[in-house]
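Q: Here's a chain of 309 amino acids. Please give me its 3D structure as tokens.
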Amino acid sequence: MTRADLKGKYLGAMVGSALGDAIGELAFIYPGRKDLCAILNRIEKLVYTDDTAMAIGLAESILEKRAIDSQHLGDTFNRNFHCEPWRGYASGPPTIFSMVRCYGISYVEAAKSLFGGSGSIGNGAAMRITPVGLFFHNSEHLYEAACASAEVTHAHPVGMDGAAVQALAIAQGLKLDPGKEFPLERFIQGLIAFARTPEIREKMKLVQALIVEDVSPSIAADRLGGSVAVDESMPFAIYSFLRYPKSFEDSLFCAVLNGGDRDTLGTMAGAISGAYLGIEAIPASWYHKLENRTTIENLASSLAELSVC
């Protein structure tokens, strides 16, 4: 793979994730493909949510520290939240930011105290994980890096494990040649082996069975789930990619048009598809409407230059 090809895949992952976020947010209002396509043709700007805002913060922190530094990452998230609190953040991050400010504890300590001391099992760490999957795509420490980025806000073992498996899906997509036959068995087996919690591992096995048995997206969504819990939404995002690995558009529509946490489902599916297919596979009409696209592209390009090789 040439360096230009690799950069195109970094761009595809970051832009694809942001577009999945923005289009998934629209799908809450336009839950049918025809209506969603119509609004995508009419709308002038595709506006992303906290999913992409936090991915931007994660990329910024990685580029500055050349690693995952939990304190710096938490400070970056905190700063960006206060600049744009209207992005649609769930209650977890601002609660953590407030605890850090009021009690002088670390972000990780605050995150571990949530939900009765179990930490969050939500998909918030997985939704923003794209920069980790890219920067550490060839590192033997990908799992640890993903967990370190997650535990700043999502300290539950399943929350961290789901983020790590999503990071690996992006990393695997990055390394595959879309001009060749897609290695379905190798791809999904890699995810199953990588998972460290039974909840995520069993859902990856179920994804494999649903794809092999050619189960329809609507039924797969019912069986996998699509809620804000990472062991539901992340597996369906991966199913959506595996269902349509050669089409960014079809993969994304599968993710966002079957209920559930649509913007985050789109974010995760868009990241994997973009990493695999590259920026050229993303519809130009969507690409040119993405809010803050230049910043997102610059972050992707910088990650490509500095990532672990």
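Q: Can you summarize the key feature?
A: The mean pLDDT is 97.
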